[in-house]
Design brief:
This protein is an all-alpha fold. Helices cover about 75% and strands about 0% of the residues. The longest helix is centred in the last third of the chain and has 33 residues.
Length: about 400
C-alpha cells in the first residue's frame, strides 16, 4: 500500500496537468483544486466510509512528511531559477510604489485578522497569518514554504489553502468585472508609458501566456537542461536540509526553507541557469505534489470545523488589504489599472496577470504585474516568516 501512495503522489499531479491541458472545464477548476480533492477523498476514506475502509498503511506518516518537505523545497528551487531580478529596474516608480503599498496593506490586514480570529482558529493562527502574508505578496509557493518552515498542522494548512481558493475566485471575479470602474471614481486613469516593454528574455514568457503549458517538456532540447536544473535543485535542497542538523529543532526548518530560497535566488543570477526552459512549470508540478500530500494528511472532520473561521480570516486578509491598498494609492495618486495589476500579482501571483490585463484592455501593464509579482515571490517568504514570529511574541 505504501507503493500505491508514493505512485499516487508522483503521478496524480501528472494526470491533473493532463486534464487541465485537455479539457477547458478542468482548466477552470485548476490543478490545485483537483489535487486537493483527490488527496482529501483518498486520505479520509476511513472517515467517509465510517471506518470500513482505510488505505493509509501504519507508519506511513514519515514518508508523507518527507514528500511534504521535499515537494516544497524542489518547487521553490525550480521556480526561483526562472527569476530575472534585473527586470525590477524596468518598472516605473509608481508601479513599485503600488506594490509596496499593497504589501503594507497585506501586513496590516493579516496582523489585524490575527487579533480578530485567533480565538476562533486557535494556537496556529500566528502561522496562518504568516502564510497569508507570503501568499498575498507572492502566491502559493510562498504559502507552502512558510507552512513548511513553521511546521503548521496539516489540516490547518489545507483549510487555509482551500479557503484561499474559494476567496480568491471571488476576488478575481471582482477584479475582471467591476473593480476598475469602482477605483476610477477616486483614482486617476492609466496613462501609457511608451518606454515600457514586454518581458520575454527568460524561460517565462508571460506575454504569450504559455506559462502553464507543458508542451514539449520531454523534447531533447528541454528535458536535458531541465534535468541539469533538477540536479542543481538536489544540491540546494541537500544543503538546506543539512542545516536542520546544525540549528535547534524549533528553528531548523525555518533556516532550511530560507536557505533554499536564498540559494535558488542566487542561482537565478547565473544566465545559464535562468535560461533553462520550463523550470517554472517543473516547479508548479512539485507544488501540485505538495497539494496532494497535504490534503491526504488532513483530517476532513476537523477541516469542516475550522473552515468557517478560516474563510472569514482569509476574506478579511484579502479584502481589507484591497481597501487599504486603494486608500493608500489615492494618497499617492496611483492610477487604477496599476493598483489592480499590482494587487492581482500579489494576491493571485504573476500567471494571472495577462488574463486580468486583457480584461482591463490594457496590455501595457503586463510588465508591471509580472515584475511586481516576481518581487513578491522573492520577499514573500521572508516577510511571512518574520511577521509570524512577531505576532507570536505579542
Amino acid at each position: 500500500m505504501a507503493v500505491f501512495w508514493i505512485a499516487f503522489y508522483v503521478l496524480f499531479p501528472v494526470l491533473a496537468i493532463y486534464l487541465c491541458q485537455k479539457y477547458r472545464t478542468m482548466s477552470r477548476i485548476g490543478g490545485v483544486v483537483l489535487c486537493y480533492i483527490a488527496g482529501l477523498l483518498l486520505g479520509n476514506l476511513k472517515f467517509i466510509t465510517g471506518g470500513h475502509v482505510d488505505i493509509i498503511p501504519p507508519g506511513f506518516k514519515n514518508t508523507q512528511d518527507l514528500f511534504f518537505i521535499l515537494s516544497v523545497a524542489f518547487a521553490l528551487s525550480l521556480i526561483f531559477f526562472s527569476l530575472d531580478i534585473r527586470r525590477w529596474t524596468r518598472v516605473a516608480g509608481k508601479a513599485l510604489l503600488s506594490f509596496f503599498l499593497g504589501t503594507i496593506a497585506v501586513l496590516i490586514s493579516a496582523a489585524s485578522g490575527y487579533m480578530i480570529f485567533k480565538s476562533m482558529i486557535g494556537g496556529e493562527t500566528w502561522k496562518v497569518s504568516g502564510m497569508l502574508i507570503g501568499c498575498y505578496t507572492g502566491g502559493t509557493p510562498n504559502l507552502a514554504a512558510i507552512g513548511t518552515a513553521l511546521r503548521i498542522d496539516k489540516t490547518v494548512l489545507a483549510s487555509t489553502q482551500i479557503s484561499d481558493v474559494a476567496v480568491g475566485a471571488l476576488y478575481l471575479l471582482l477584479m475582471v468585472t467591476i473593480m476598475q470602474r469602482i477605483l476610477l471614481k477616486f483614482l486617476p486613469p492609466f496613462r501609457a508609458n511608451k518606454s515600457a516593454g514586454v518581458c520575454t528574455d527568460s524561460g517565462m514568457d508571460f506575454e504569450a501566456g504559455d506559462y502553464e503549458s507543458f508542451s514539449g517538456i520531454f523534447s531533447r532540447e528541454v528535458i536535458l537542461p531541465l534535468l541539469g536544473a533538477l540536479g542543481l535543485a538536489v544540491f540546494i535542497v541537500a544543503v538546506g536540509l543539512g542545516l536542520t542538523f546544525v540549528f535547534p529543532e524549533d528553528y531548523a526548518m525555518v533556516v532550511a526553507v530560507l536557505a533554499v530560497c536564498t540559494l535558488a535566488i542566487l542561482a537565478s543570477f547565473i544566465p545559464a541557469v535562468r535560461r533553462i526552459p520550463m523550470t517554472f512549470q517543473a516547479g508548479q508540478y512539485f507544488i501540485l505534489i505538495f497539494c496532494v500530500v497535504v490534503s491526504s494528511m488532513s483530517d476532513l472532520k476537523k477541516l469542516f470545523t475550522t473552515a468557517p473561521a478560516m474563510v472569514g480570516f482569509v476574506a478579511w486578509a484579502v479584502f481589507v488589504a484591497l481597501v487599504l491598498h486603494a486608500a493608500l494609492a489615492a494618497i499617492f495618486r496611483i492610477d487604477a489599472d496599476t493598483v489592480i495589476i499590482a494587487s492581482v500579482a500579489g494576491v493571485m501571483s504573476p500567471p494571472f496577470v495577462p488574463m486580468v490585463a486583457a480584461a482591463l484592455k490594457n496590455k501595457d501593464i503586463v510588465v508591471t504585474g509580472v515584475v511586481t509579482g516576481i518581487i513578491g515571490w522573492v520577499i514573500g517568504t521572508y516577510l511571512g516568516i518574520g511577521m509570524a514570529y512577531l505576532l507570536r511574541s505579542l
